[in-house]
Design goal:
It is built from eleven helices and two strands, in the order αααααββαααααα. The chain is mainly α and about 280 residues long. It has one domain. It has a two-stranded antiparallel ribbon.
Length: about 280
């Protein structure tokens, strides 16, 4: 448990210390958020607020786990590869959006293909790992369901869905970071109970990183995490759920993500069918 506390504290304090260094750099580089003009007027005043702040979270996670983790096994490595891989996708997305001065960076097909690649890598690793395999724990029953040949496509779908749901949650100041912090704390205790200590330290580092980032992301936000942060955190949560066999618990632990995803689906469906939006912004 001491390692967990150290991991949270190191990443949180690292975020507090690095924030005043990284945020001004983002401002100097003019890495400001481009806001959709068809959204609420209250959102327009956020235009120009530095984005790509997720770099801060990623750095604190790396720093904390390097200091606290005594060893780095394959299960930790694949979790970090997934986290950093999705963070890289987000970084490219944010960078292109800033350079081309538009609210969207990568084209949808580019994001899906790149996300699919990392999802397949994670799913393939889990499926072929004898300690994980194709069995999933059914919530509140203590029973497992074996998906067999359907494990790979199901898991890939869940990974991509999870990362994008976390991404969609990053719409209000402090929302994604606070919700994700709680979800990661859930996985800290799960990983400890399963004796997956390296994953527990990684989840704790993520929670601490979110806590430190909240200092600068809570209303009124001084910086946004951007897709760099939201996709990285989504990748981390997806990796933790897959590597612990608790994929079916995600809709429960991440209920806010589910609500956000459903709101977007309803918004798109309503606009396609009626030409009207249900919400001003989703």
């Amino acid at each position: 448990m001491n390692r967990i506390i150290y991991s949270i504290l190191i990443s949180a304090f690292a975020g507090l210390i690095l924030g005043p260094v990284i945020i001004p750099i983002l401002k100097v580089l003019k890495f400001g958020q481009n806001i959709r003009e068809d959204g609420p007027r209250s959102h327009l005043k956020k235009s120009g607020t530095p984005t790509m702040g997720g770099i801060l979270i990623i750095l604190t996670i790396i720093l904390s786990t390097i200091i606290v983790n005594g060893k780095f096994d394959s299960i930790y490595a694949i979790a970090m590869i997934t986290t950093l891989g999705y963070g890289l996708i987000g970084l490219l997305d944010d960078s292109i959006g800033i350079i081309k001065k538009r609210s969207l960076g990568l084209r949808p097909y580019q994001k899906i293909i790149s996300q699919f690649i990392f999802a397949v890598i994670l799913a393939y690793y889990a499926y072929n790992n004898p300690l994980i395999g194709s069995k999933l724990l059914v919530p509140f029953t203590g029973n497992y369901i074996d998906l067999g040949m359907w494990y790979m496509p199901f898991t890939v779908f869940v990974i991509i869905g999870t990362t994008n749901s976390v991404n969609l949650t990053d719409g209000l100041d402090g929302l994604a970071s606070s919700v994700t912090m709680v979800v990661l704390l859930f996985f800290v205790f799960v990983c400890l109970s399963l004796n997956k200590d390296e994953l527990a330290v990684l989840a704790a580092a993520g929670a601490g990183g979110c806590l430190g980032f909240l200092r600068y992301n809570s209303y009124p936000a001084q910086v946004f995490m951007g897709d760099t942060g939201s996709l990285a955190l989504g990748g981390l949560i997806a990796a933790l759920s897959v590597l612990t066999g608790l994929t079916l618990y995600l809709p429960i632990a991440g209920i806010i993500y589910v609500v956000e995803a459903l709101s977007v689906i309803l918004q798109v469906a309503s606009y396609k069918l009626t030409g009207k939006r249900i919400f001003k912004m989703s």
